[in-house]
């Protein structure tokens, strides 16, 4: 009902001659008609639309979009404090990669660092049929050695907002990340796309240095936060020669009456944000790469790796307003929790600091947005769930603090990726690879695999859990003990996304369709926790994993170059590898 009403309104609102009233697919009265995407018909997408089941169907654009990324080390001062960073093409964030739904992406990654391997992951992309380009060292590839180039090739079968980042130890926390905008339809109209809005915690000491203490278990307090890679920091009275000053706040300009789309992305090391803009209401239209039925709110709570597509209408009195990252102080400590701000101006010539105040009630929880708010527009229920994989989360101390999944902490050997073993026909993997084999029991009907992670640590910490290679359906997300049965599962169009928070002293139950043979990591996206082994991997339908010979050659060449680099390696692996 809600969807039909939405389309009726969308059709009425459409004024362009090209706008043809949209037919709800279930109504099935007319053949599908073409409808162009515009500011007043965002649900349209040519012969496709917001109603297309994008798990089954992808537009054939016949277009290939090519990018070149250079992974570099150098100094940076995003907030006016100079330190060493790792960057894509010299900037933090790296360049935004833009493609249309259905395009082919070809991305050449050259490792121009002197003493580090690297490997780049395209967060949230399904990599349908291309598990070898998922970018996880020790799982889908060997690291790219210094001086080497690897070309990633895959099809864009989804649309919306995401990011790419190094998956090699803590590198993304040093600046190796950038945005991905995949153009497609949307569930509400807007005038302008303001692109990605990164929320990030930031340290003046490099993450690899902090690791020396962080690995012992107590996360260090980070110095500040950045919005889209920038902020100010108070260097007045500082005798520290690295505190050079000159940082800037992120700023954007609103024109009264217009609607703007922001693609809010949390890329923190450990923080949770409660994003808001003083004086403005947020309309949320997407969770990760899944369009949702729009809902309005005054703030959005976002965990690491998650994305929220948000529309903001410029309907406040003309003036300057704070845009607030909204550090949630109960989830992680930071020395500058209130300073993670940017500015929205109605007058581009204004240079004054806003005097606006927030009416948002500060969050004290570290959980996701309310489960009931996150209703996928493309309504899909979970069907056949023959097996439930239940894993206990705990911890141990073995030279450093390690998280364990069913008593085993992830530890990968970068030079022996899971896929290499798959290509060799092995079905036995090292225990510390934490491999769970899954495959459909029949070839006829669609089946879902179910993963339940139960927190048994007693620590009460929340963990943002990310799955590669799939969107998942969130069957349950609650405190307490899982009873081993499906009785607590909601299978009727539950929230669907690629990162969801495991509640402390509780459990998270996820379902994913067994439709993408490959080696797929599941991990906590808190950078310290991933390094401390909070991860497992699914090897899905191993006998059906197929990689053509050109891609096989890319894989082998990358490994050969890495293997010849190993004897000269400066920094031996000192964590799980991811
Ligand atoms: Cu953002 Cu395993 O990834």
TrEMBL record:
The prosthetic group or cofactor this protein requires is: Cu cation
Q: Which GO terms describe its molecular function?
A: copper ion binding; hydroquinone:oxygen oxidoreductase activity
Q: Does the keyword Acetylation apply?
A: no
Q: Could you tell me the keywords of this UniProt record?
A: Copper, Disulfide bond, Glycoprotein, Lignin degradation, Metal-binding, Oxidoreductase, Repeat, Signal
What domain of life does the UniProt record list for this protein's source?
Eukaryota
Reactions it catalyzes: 4 hydroquinone + O2 = 4 benzosemiquinone + 2 H2O
State the InterPro entries in the record: Cu-oxidase-like_N (IPR011707), Cu-oxidase_2nd (IPR001117), Cu-oxidase_C (IPR011706), Cu-oxidase_fam (IPR045087), Cu_oxidase_CS (IPR033138), Cu_oxidase_Cu_BS (IPR002355), Cupredoxin (IPR008972)
Signal peptide residues are: 1-17
| Residue intervals of the Plastocyanin-like domain | 71-185, 196-346, 417-542
Pfam families, per this entry? Cu-oxidase, Cu-oxidase_2, Cu-oxidase_3
Does the keyword Zinc belong to this entry? no
BP term (GO), one: lignin catabolic process
The Enzyme Commission number assigned here is: 1.10.3.2
Q: Provide the top EC class.
A: oxidoreductase
Write out the similarity annotation.
Answer: Belongs to the multicopper oxidase family.
Protein name from the UniProt record: laccase
Species of origin reads Diplogelasinospora grovesii
